UniProtKB/TrEMBL annotation:
This is Amidohydrolase family protein. It comes from Solicola gregarius. Transmembrane segments: none annotated. InterPro entries: Amidohydro-rel, Metal-dep_hydrolase_composite, Metal_Hydrolase, Metallo-dep_Hydrolase. PANTHER family: ALPHA-D-RIBOSE 1-METHYLPHOSPHONATE 5-TRIPHOSPHATE DIPHOSPHATASE (PTHR43135:SF3). One of its GO terms (molecular function) is hydrolase activity, acting on carbon-nitrogen (but not peptide) bonds. It holds the Pfam family Amidohydro_1. Residues 71-423 form the Amidohydrolase-related domain.
Amino acid sequence: MEVQLPAMLFAEHDRADRPVWLTNARLFDGTSTPIREGAGVLVEDGRIARVGSAGDGAPEGVDTVDLGGRTLMPGIVNAHLHAIGAVPDLGFGVQPVLPGTLGHALGAKLREFLRYGVTTVRDMGTYGDQVMENRQAMRYGLFRGARILTCGLIISSTAPGDVIFDGMYRATDGNDEVRKGVREQIRRGADFIKVMATGARSVELEAGINRDEHDSAHGMSEQLTRAELETAVEEANRMGYAVVAHAEGLAGCEIAIDLNMRTIEHGFYLFQRPELLERMAEQDIALVPTFSSQYVFAGRDLQVGTDGPTERFSTRELDRVAEVNIAAAERTLQAAHAAGVPIALGGDDLELRRGGAWIEIRRMIHHGLPAHDALVASTSAAAHALGLHDLGTIEPGKIADIVVVDGDPVREPELFGDRDRFWLVLQEGSPVAGTALEVPLSEVGRAS
């Protein structure tokens, strides 16, 4: 059984009254098919009705938009972020942040994501109800933002990370507590279940004390026991929900693969176990590499590559683990790609900057993923990994999440970080962002 994800329940948004013919496009359809020139795409009632050539001409009764040779592609799917609203630090003495303000801050980010072509995101754990509140507000048509899938609280054991990320985990011990924790997330409206198969590289009493002589934490043991993880998968799958694994140490990765979890988040050291990568490919288990959080923990912020200076972010021990993780993740990315493992974009950008996708795309390419494959990871592969079968490609019948950019994203992946290169963004066929919709103040009121 597979459930209709709560994030995809009917949304009360206005849709375009007339079909739209998007013509004269350079088309990246979200698959391994090469980009082609001179394409046309018909959008009707929120979905893609036809994909053809510009030379076909506009069907009768449609609005025609000439894209002028710009690139048309599917909306970007960011498969790993923590949807935490944040407000600026205004200094000592300022009024304390009110309870609902962080929810508004998250809503502002979800709106901004559209401006960078990110139409869908997967929340991998946050605090309170701000994700649920924003998702509900979008469903009721109160604002447009990137649609958001969420795990609710992360199913963990009683562990050091539960202290560092107080309020993000549902600590469970024993099969009965695990089962109840899973049921609680489903009751809250989770789209999937996330489990801590291992501890985290950001917690000194987990990764910091599991370092070997090379500062690698590949030997980090499983956090929840195999029996507890089996219970989580059994209960979630019984109810029609997928399970995904935070898995860094190889022991947790192996159990997650044994239990056929949907995605492996991080998986830095999998290059050491090529047979596990082969099994992931056979079982259609996706890898979400998450370079960006490792760069942050290593004090490298928005760098691409590890030749630049660093600034302390964590403890010295965790800084060293993060540096090793970047190098290990590069080897795993290349080995996974060679083995045919599905790879999905997951920015894991702690500050949710520009949708978190742009910098992760560049880093995946820098660390060895071919540019075209990085775009596939950001669209169809990510959508497939999330169980969003109506998204991710430009083909008839799919939901019309469409991004139009100035330039060739395969040759210029850096364009994803420049909001002025996003000419038009459609979500469910409706125009929601892009420079084509923005009118300079100097033009307001000017006679046509």
